Amino acid sequence: MKIVLCGYMGSGKTSVGFRLSKTLSVPYFDLDKYISNAESRSISAIFLEFGEIYFRKLESKALKDVLIFEGDGVVALGGGTPCYGDNLSFILNQTDVKLIYLKASISTIVNRISSKNNSRPLLMHLNSAADKREFIAKHLFERRFFYEQAHHTINVDNKSLEEVVEDCLALL
Ligand code: S3P
Q: Are 117 and 139 in contact (CB under 8 A)?
């Protein structure tokens, strides 16, 4: 069984995924890290040098590479992964995958990304809190349709990392 985590930037996919994999003693794959290692560049550098369309192609290929491996594991997707190309149908067509949406409210996302949005290429241009909130509200509205097709949804607002991991474990 592969547990695949999706959700908007700042929803906790990476930290929850890593902790969950340790608890279950299974391999952990972070899609952004996989892409970044394969390209020997940060995600920001890929966006900057080659643009978003190029990144989305890499992301789609990386998703397939990672999900085709044999055995158990936990996979943290990038925030946009289920929203492009055939990625979501590919994920949902895998019989050994459980897709979990880590659902965070706009306020939770704004609070979490405020201090560290410099490394997120899609949010770098946003300066004021009002701009961030407006952008995230619209973006999340567009993406919700994809996230909500996950097999399970966990609300992460006001929960600690441990609590979210517990919620994931309860679904298995
Ligand atoms: C993106 C989210 C990022 C990364 C890239 C694009 C997105 O991952 O894949 O910057 O489109 O939401 P995180 O959700 O891990 O920040």
A: no
158-97-5 Cα angle (round to 5): 25
How many angstroms is it from 65 CA to the middle of ligand 1?
18
Domain extent at residue 107: 2-171
Q: Which atom of ligand 1 is nearest to the CA of 9?
A: 14
- pLDDT tens digits for range 80-130: 999 999 999 999 999 999 999 999 999 999 988 876 555 788 988 888 889
The b/e string for 145-157 (b: 16+ C-beta within 10 A; e otherwise) is ebbeebeebbebe
Which pLDDT does position 70 carry in this prediction? 78
User: How far apart are alpha carbons 60 and 88 in whole angstroms?
Assistant: 10
Q: Which pLDDT tens digit goes with each residue over 51-63?
A: 999 999 999 999 9
Structurally, how many domains does the chain consist of?
Answer: 1
Q: How far is the CA of 7 from the centre of ligand 1 (A)?
A: 9
Give yes or no for a contact between 20 and 165, defined as CB atoms under 8 angstroms apart: yes
Q: How far apart are CA 9 and CA 118, in angstroms?
A: 13
Ligand 1 proximity of 3 Cβ (cutoff 6 Å):
no
Angle at 40 between CA 38 and CA 41, to 5 degrees: 115
CATH number where 68 lies: 3.40.50.300
